[in-house]
Amino acid sequence: MINEEKTYSVVTGDIVSSSRLSNRERKHLYDVMKQGSSELRQRYPHAVPFDVDIFRGDSWQFLVSDIPNTLRTALFYRLYIRIQMKNISDTRESIGVGKISFIPETRVSEGTGPAYRISGKGLDGLKQTRMSLEFEDNTDFNSYAEILIMVIDSLVTSLTYKQALGVYGALQGWPQKDIVALWDPPISQQAVSDHLKSARWGLLEKSVEYIENNMLQRYE
To answer: What is the pLDDT at residue 105?
Structure first.
């Protein structure tokens, strides 16, 4: 049940250049997005209370009720799609943090409220980047968030397939000895370390943690 006094995050996205995919690739993409929803809810059961709502074929939306996990859930879903589609597809995503007036449990995309408006407007405004983050009740955060999200987006957008695998594991806090299993066959820990270094994981991690510790944790 939605609490109108509580703050939520709404994450809205769409697939980049989906019209260029073949019919077979589109079918696979849909399956990936659905499976990504299941994986997301298994990984963040207390943060993502409803399934990812997929609509218009290449658009999607989900709700985050545990604000500190907002950015990691958004990046988790984006990286999952990138990896499962072998890096031929990426998704834009816009995060709106604010109040919610109403949401039907079966269709997240039919909800209403400031968080929805901010998220939708943010997605419409994406031109040169593929991510945005905006807060309803603290405009002071927005200018800092815009800069840091640009850094995060630039790093994620430039990831190779192998780098994306490493970042996907590291983002979840996995040790490198566990991340190696994402490859088939598994690679060495040194190879994982090399992929994370070339992905500039250190900068990405610090940027994510800054937003979490200085902005999102306020809503715990």
So the answer is: 74
- How far is it, in rounded angstroms, from Cα 94 to Cα 55? 16
**Extended beta strands in 73-217, E state:** 91-98, 131-135
Q: What residues contact 219, with CB distance under 8 A and at least 6 apart?
A: 7, 67, 68, 97
Q: Which residues contact 41 (CB under 8 A, 6 or more apart)?
A: 48, 51
Tell me the whole-structure pTM to 2 decimals: 0.96
Share of the chain above pLDDT 90, in %: 93
| Residue 94 near residue 12, CB atoms below 8 Å | yes
Spatial separation of the C-alpha atoms in residues 71 and 211, rounded to whole Å = 8
What is the spatial distance between Cα 79 and Cα 39, in angstroms, rounded to a whole number?
Answer: 12
Residues pairing with 98 in the sheet? 8
Of 50, 56, 57, 38, the residue nearest 11 (C-alpha): 50
- Following CA atoms 126, 128, 132, 138 in sequence, which dihedral angle do they give, to the nearest 10 degrees? -90
